[in-house]
Backbone:
């Protein structure tokens, strides 16, 4: 599936799955950032028999790195960590430093939270708030913060490098 913007793709996927739109899609529509009536080519939501399977996990996990699921987060923030480990334009040294830092956080333990009003339980001492939506949480609790809407993988790495071992 492809779209000109995140609003269109996320809104259409919600219709396909028959689930309630996340708050950020509704906010985008209210602000006029996203508009309905966009063109859909191929299968329409009404013609696809999607089966919705509820997600039972609160977070995704890699060793002791926990990425907390949040229905109020946009799809762009959801992919910032995945973008870190892609080869796109990265020199070998920078790529190895990225893997090393993520592996270090994964072994020592770290919570990654994103979206409006994230709900999470901090089991580990390190918490990284991802995206502009989490700025208030980071400031009020003294957590590390990756700014941007959406944040970039380079900003994510800068914040990760500053976290003490």
Residues:
């Amino acid at each position: 599936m492809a779209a000109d913007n995140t609003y269109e793709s996320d809104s259409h996927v919600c219709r396909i799955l028959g689930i309630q739109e996340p708050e950020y899609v509704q906010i985008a529509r209210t602000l006029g950032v996203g508009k309905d009536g966009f063109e859909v080519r191929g299968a329409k939501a009404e013609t696809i028999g999607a089966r919705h399977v509820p997600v039972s996990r609160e977070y995704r996990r890699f060793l002791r790195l926990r990425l907390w699921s949040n229905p109020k987060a946009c799809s762009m923030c959801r992919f910032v960590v995945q973008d870190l480990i892609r080869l796109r334009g990265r020199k070998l040294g920078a790529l190895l430093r990225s893997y090393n830092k993520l592996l270090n956080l994964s072994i020592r333990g770290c919570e990654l939270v994103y979206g409006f009003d994230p709900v999470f339980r901090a089991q580990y001492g390190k918490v990284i708030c991802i995206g502009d939506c989490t700025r208030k949480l980071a400031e009020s609790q003294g957590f590390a913060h990756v700014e941007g809407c959406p944040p970039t993988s380079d900003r994510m790495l800068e914040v990760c490098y500053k976290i003490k071992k």
The mean pLDDT is 78. The helical segments are 6-17, 23-31, 75-78, 80-84, 92-108, 135-141, 153-162. The radius of gyration is 17 Å.
